[in-house]
Structures are given as C-alpha cells and as structure tokens.
Write a structure and sequence with these properties.
single chain; alpha/beta
C-alpha cells in the first residue's frame, strides 16, 4: 500500500511551493538530448507530457512537435482552422507562444482565445466538431496545451485531429517520430518566425470559444430543469481552464450556483496536497478535493474539474466525494432512462478497468456494453456516429451525446458531467449519491481498488505481451475464472496486459506508460476481504510471470 503523506489534504507551506520562474526559465533554457530516452518526445494516451526542470518538456520539444503537426496536416490535406487552447499551468502559455511561431511560419490558420484566456479540452473538441459539421473539406483540428491534473511544474501538449477527440496511436507515432528526428538534427528543418511577427500574421486570429459552447449546453443538458428546480450548486474550477466559463453559464441559464473560488495561481498554492504530499488538481482525490468536500455539505450537489476541465469530481451527501466508478454507474443509469431521442441501439462504452457495476447497469437497461482498452480515443468512433451514447473511464473522464442523440464532444467533458449531477438532482429529487446507494441495493456493492508495483522496462514489456495461457489455474480467490483477456471484448484491440474475471470479481494488470510500475486494478462484489484475496493472488502470479527468465 502507498504511504499517505502527513501533508495530504493540507495546504503546503510557502517553502514547499514550486519555483515558477525557475520552471519557465528551464522551459526556454534547457535543451533536450534526444539520445536520452526520457528527453525525447513521447506521446502517451494524452499527448506529450513532461517537466521543464527534468528536460522532458521544453521549447525544443514544442518546436519539433509543431513542425511534425504542420507536416502531418499537409500530408493529410487538413487545411481548415486549427483551434488551440491552453490551461493554467505555468508553461502552457509559453508553449502556445512557441507553437504560434511554428504554425504561423507554415501559414496555418490558427484560432486562439480572443482574450488570451484559458480554454478547456472539451471546448476545443466542441469547436472542432461544430466547425466540421456538414463539411467534406477544409476540416478543422486542434491543439490543447495541458498536462491535465499533473503538478504545477509540468507541461503537456496534445493534438486532436478533425474527429475532435484524442489522436490515435498511428497519428501520434507519426508526429512523435518526426519530432524526434527534428530534435536529433538540431531543429534545422523547423520553420519558425519570431513571436512578435507570428502573432501579427493574418493567419493568427482571435476566437470567442466561450459563447458558442455556453449557448449550446442546453442541447446536451436540461438546463431549464436545473434552473426551475433551484438546485443549489457549488462549483470549484480548481484554478483551471474552466474558471472563466462558469459565470457565463450561471448567467445564461439563471442557475442557483456559486463558484467557490476563481483564484488562478501558477503555484496552485490554494490546493490541498494529494496523497503523496504533491500538488495535483485531481478532482477524484479526496485529499486534493478537501476544500470542496467540506464546502459541499452546504450545497445540494457540488463539483470540480481538473485543470483542463476534461475530468469531474462530484460531491453529494451522504458520500461526500463520490467514487468515480459509482458516479459513472449513476450517470449511465439516468441518461439511458431520460434521453428518449437516443436510439434503442445506442451502446454504453467503458474502459476495461472501470467497475463491473457498469456491466450490471447495462444488463439492467438491456443495452449493449462496449468494453475497450484504457484511453478515451477508443470511444471516438462510437460517440461520433452515435452508436455509443456514453463513454467513460474509471479515472473520472467521460462524455455523452446531445439530447437528440448526435455527437457533443469526442473528448472528455468534465463540465457536462458536473451539470448532469445537477440535472439528476433536479429531475429526480435525489442527488447522485442517493442514486448510487439505490443501484448498489439492486445490483450489489462493488469494492474496487488499484495498486501499483515496481517493474523494470523489460518487465513492463513482458506484461504488455502476456498471453492468457501464462496465467495458470482456473480459479481466482475461490471462484471459477470465466475469462482471461488480453484483448478488449468491445473492439478486439490489445489491452497491453491481462484481465481475469469471475462471477463476482476481476483484476486487470497493465504497465504504466510513464513510470516504472505496473498497475493492478481489482474489484469484488463480495467483500473487502475478497477484494484483498484477488489482489494478493493477482500480484503473486504476475510477479512470478515477470520474474521468469530475469
């Protein structure tokens, strides 16, 4: 078990806060060495992430990535506008400046926030899809500069192609390989203008991202029901990109809502530390969410978003901060009963490490369950064509269709998941926490946990390539094994690990994409003790497999 820091859930002393000027200086001054693996461009499930002080997210990385994006767009014939947004991390604005220098040099029509403000990830996805609706050519795409909920010292940069969602591995691999080639060649092939010239090029234009998104919200959420019921709502943007969106939403729809803090601070000094004493804007962590959990007692429902607003944390009594899996089950149960215009064939999307409670909800609803590997990119096709009404991850990221059954976003949208909690409360008279307990009484209580264990790169590679036959035996924690999976049943894509299921429990083991650890997700519908049995047996067998031949 991970050791909980004595600083968890508390604000850090000033002496422990990050040195933001040093982080920004490192962004410009440190030059990555492409011969060192940790200093190369590396796209994970959410773009390239790193820290300037570790020489893993620096100006040269962004120059190389943007040259790769420019060439990828040209090769694919993507010649519409490129919508760009940033979050509130210290190096997000510098990275956007760097991107503009390259993109303007290529003459790409770049749309940036009209007030140099912040733009949530789902707003970029919404802008791309809105622009591309009905078009066959001149398609738009987008860039979001964000490391999500990562610490204040980090940076992140992700590309969304014309389908509006996270780029798939074929795209990210192509851009990554080009970028690393440019780094190795000393950036000789990178086109670039000075920022002073680039920002005044006619291809760089200011764009109002706020108004179209805000005015379109009632196509996906019953905003009138929330207003008319007078639901008392508390909102904490956690100093992130949604901070300037909530007041326009409240004003436009007449909501009884309070934004508990609009503070923006690159040190995120207002945050309470996460479990390990580090600052993360993780809206699913009770330690990071300590402020809103306490304030949430005075609201009918309260919610927060991470820094780029693609994740949600829901606070409702009696639970306080809801377990993300519990809220996903409630959201699905409510939506498929209260969206009459959705097709009867519309399925439910979940990642394979999300709770089995979702499986039981899907069966209760009589809906097709589509179980995919980790990564929101797997939901993009289904959300785009309407064959999936909902796509969700255990890490508190989800999106769903408009009320008429058409696509809203193809990236995670923490804003609408928060507003959905208010709609559920308004239309049923019960908050999402109360609904979860109703579901648990009908379908069973789920005991769920994730543990991390150390693994070398070689062991991680071995785990990613496991075959079902390498897991011996036919029982798990006293129950007969019903499946051993290395491919997701929803789309037959490799899960990069192994999932083993029984009637009342399961575990999944997969390597981390960013750390030298592997993760074991496990769940029991029997008891905490049964969950512990599953975890112990899983860790024992996986450890033996990983040590074989070492």
């Amino acid at each position: 078990m991970a050791k909980i820091s004595p600083l968890a859930g508390k604000r850090l002393p000033a002496s422990d806060l990050p040195d933001i000027p040093a982080v920004i200086a490192a962004y410009y001054e440190r030059k990555p060495d492409p011969s060192i693996p940790t200093q190369r461009v590396s796209f994970g499930t959410s773009g390239h992430r790193g820290a300037p002080l570790n020489t893993s997210f620096n100006e040269n990385h962004i120059l190389a990535i943007c040259e790769g994006i420019a060439r990828y767009r040209k090769a694919q014939g993507i010649d519409g506008p490129l919508f760009t947004g940033i979050d509130t991390h210290a190096v997000s604005a510098p990275a956007q400046r760097t991107a503009i220098e390259v993109l303007a040099a290529h003459g790409i029509a770049v749309h940036i926030a009209h007030d140099d403000g912040y733009t949530p990830t789902p707003v970029i996805s919404h802008a791309i899809l809105t622009y591309n609706r009905g078009r066959k050519s001149g398609l738009a795409d987008g860039i979001v500069v964000t490391p999500s909920h990562n610490p204040p010292t980090d940076g992140g940069f992700k590309y969304n192609p014309p389908h509006g969602g996270p780029a798939d591995s074929d795209i990210t691999k192509a851009i990554q390989n080009m970028a690393n080639g440019f780094l190795a060649d000393g950036l000789k092939e990178v086109k670039r203008l000075t920022f002073e010239r680039a920002i005044n090029e006619p291809c760089i234009t200011r764009h109002d991202f706020v108004t179209p998104y805000v005015e379109d919200l009632d196509s996906v959420i019953d905003m009138a029901a929330i207003r008319d019921a007078g639901v008392k709502i508390g909102i904490d943007p956690l100093g992130g990109a949604a901070v300037r969106y909530w007041q326009p939403i409240i004003a436009r729809y007449g909501l009884n809502a309070t934004v508990v803090s609009e503070e923006v601070d690159p040190q995120f000094s207002f945050m309470t530390a996460d479990w390990d004493g580090q600052i993360r804007m993780d809206c699913s962590s009770p330690y990071a969410m300590a402020r809103l959990i306490e304030m949430g007692k005075t609201f009918d429902v309260a919610f927060a978003n991470d820094t780029d607003a693609d994740r949600h944390g829901i606070v409702a009594q009696p639970d306080g901060l809801m377990n993300p899996n519990h809220y996903l089950a409630v959201a699905i149960s409510y939506l498929y009963r209260n969206r009459p215009q959705w097709s009867a064939d519309t399925g439910i999307g979940k990642t394979l490490v999300s709770s089995g409670l979702i499986d039981r909800v899907a069966a209760e609803l009589g809906r097709k369950l589509v179980e995919v590997p980790v990564g929101f990119k797997w939901f993009v096709p289904g959300l785009l064509d309407g064959s999936l009404g909902f796509g969700g991850e255990e890490s508190a990221g989800a999106s769903f269709l408009r009320r008429d059954g058409t696509v809203w976003t193809t990236d995670k949208d923490g804003i609408i998941l928060g507003l959905l909690a208010a709609e559920i409360t308004a239309k049923t008279g019960k908050n999402p926490s109360a609904h979860y307990h109703d579901i648990a009484k009908r379908l069973g209580t789920a005991y769920y946990a994730r543990i991390d264990a150390a693994a070398t790169p070689e062991q991680k590679a071995r785990l990613a390539n496991l075959s079902p036959e390498q897991y011996p035996g036919d029982t798990l924690a006293g129950e007969t094994i019903t499946a051993k999976l290395t491919k997701a049943p929803g789309n037959n894509a490799s899960i990069g690990g192994l999932k083993v299921t029984t009637k009342d429990g399961w575990f999944a083991a997969r390597p981390s994409g960013t750390e030298d650890v592997y993760k074991i997700y496990a769940e029991s519908f029997k008891s905490p003790e049964h969950l512990k049995e599953i975890q112990n047996e899983a860790q024992d067998v996986i450890s033996k497999v990983l040590s074989a031949g070492s």
